[in-house]
Amino acid sequence: MSYRTADSLRSVTLDDVRGARKMLSGVARVTALEGSRYLSGLVGAPVHLKCENLQRTGSFKLRGAYVRIAGLLPEERAAGVVAASAGNHAQGVALASSLLGVHATVFMPQGAPLPKVSATRDYGAEVRLHGQVVDETLAAAEEYAARTGAVFIHPFDHPDVIAGQGTVGLEILEQCPQVRTIVVGMGGGGLAAGIAVAVKALRPDVRIVGVQAEGAACYPPSLAAGRPVSLRNPATMADGIRVGRPGAVPFGIVGELVDEVRTVGEDDLSAALLLCLERAKLVVEPAGASPVAALLTAPDAFEGPVVAVLSGGNVDPVLMQRVLRHGMAAQGRYLAVRLRLTDRPGALATLLGVLSAADANVLDVSHVRTDPRLGLAEAEVELHLETKGPAHCAELGRALRDAGYTVIA
C-alpha cells in the first residue's frame, strides 16, 4: 500500500518517537510483554501480548496525550485544554493535564459509563456531559475551544499524539527482538501509525497488521479510495475503535507503512475478550482484544513470533457481563431455551432433574404462569444454561426432546 500525503510521513519520524519516549520517562509505564501458550499453540509460533491494558489510566492513550500537552507553548497551557471522548482518551488527557498543571475540560456523551466518568473526574479534569453520540460531544468540545481559546487535544489526528503512541513500538522491539508480526487494533489509526513509524524505521522486515471491527471499518474503503472516507453509521461494541473516518495524519502513514488491515466480527471480539480473561487472566476491553480476535479467526495468516497489542482494559462492568455471555454463546458454552410444560406440582423440579442428569449448569430460571398465550394448565419456562460446547448443547436438546418437552426457542 502507498498513500503518502504531505501531512503524513514528513510529520512523524523515528526521532520524534524517541523524543516522545524521553518525555514519557517516569510518566508512562513500560508495560509487560506476556507470552500466551494457547495462542502460540494455535498460531504455531510464539505469541506475546503487549499489555497496554495495564498502562496508567488503563490504556495507551496517556502516551500521546501527555506528549501533545507537554509540547504546548506556555500561553497555550495557560488557556487550558479540551477533549471529547467516551472513555480512554478522556482519562489520558485528564491525567496528563493534571501531571503538567494544565486545566482540562473533557466533554463526554450523556450515556458514558459512570465508571469512566468518575475516573476522568478523579484524574483531575472538569467533565461536561453533552450529546447522545460522540459526534455531538466532539462538536461541543470544538465549539468550546473556539469560544474559550482552549487547545483541542485530538485523540489521534496530530503528529505529537502519534509520536507518543509510537513509543509502544520501541518497547516491543526491545522486549521481543525476534518479532516478525505486530498486530494492533485500529480506530482513527494513531496507535498503528505510531508503531509503524518506529518499527519500520528500525526493522522494515517486521509486518504490521491493523485490525478493525467489521461495523466500524473505515480504513479499507479509505485506502481503496486513496483518501479518508467517512462511514455513515459505525457500529460495534468495541467503542475504543468505533471511529467513522481515519485521521488525515495517520491515514498517510498507515497507507505507506502498515502492511495489511483486517476486520473482525462481534462474535470474534467477544470470544477474544473471553479468552484474555480465562487464559491470560487479563481484563481487556473489546477494542483491546481485537488483535487477539484476528489471531483466533485466521491463525495461519501470521508469521511468528507475533506481538498482539492489548490497547486497553477500560471495560464497563455491565458491558463486560454482556460480552462474556455473548462470547460464551458464540463458543457454544451458553444456551438460552424456552419451553412449555404442564403447570402441576413438581413439574419444574422434574425439568431441572433432566438438565442435571445431562450435566448442564442452570444459571437462571424464569417461570411464567399467567400469560394470554398459555393454556389454563400450562406454564412457560425460560432457562439460561452454562454448557460445555456445541456438542453438549445438541445433547441437551436431545435430552429435553426425549423427556417429552418441546423447545419453543
3D architecture notes:
Pfam families: PALP. There is one protein chain. This protein is of the alpha/beta class and 409 residues long. It has 3 domains: 9-59 and 158-327, Rossmann fold (3-Layer(aba) Sandwich); 61-152, 3-Layer(aba) Sandwich (Rossmann fold), CATH 3.40.50.1100; 332-407, ACT domain (Alpha-Beta Plaits, 2-Layer Sandwich). It has 16 helices and 14 strands. The chain has helices spanning 14-24, 37-43, 61-70, 74-79, 88-100, 114-122, 134-148, 159-175, 190-202, 219-225, 248-257, 266-278, 290-297, 317-330, 347-357, 390-402, and strands at residues 33-35, 47-51, 81-84, 104-108, 126-129, 151-152, 181-185, 207-213, 260-264, 306-310, 334-342, 361-368, 378-386, 406-407. Strands 1-2-10-7-8-9 form a 6-stranded mixed sheet. The chain has a 4-stranded parallel sheet with strand order 5-4-3-6, with helices on both faces. The longest helix has 17 residues, at 159-175. Residues 1-9 have low confidence and may be disordered.
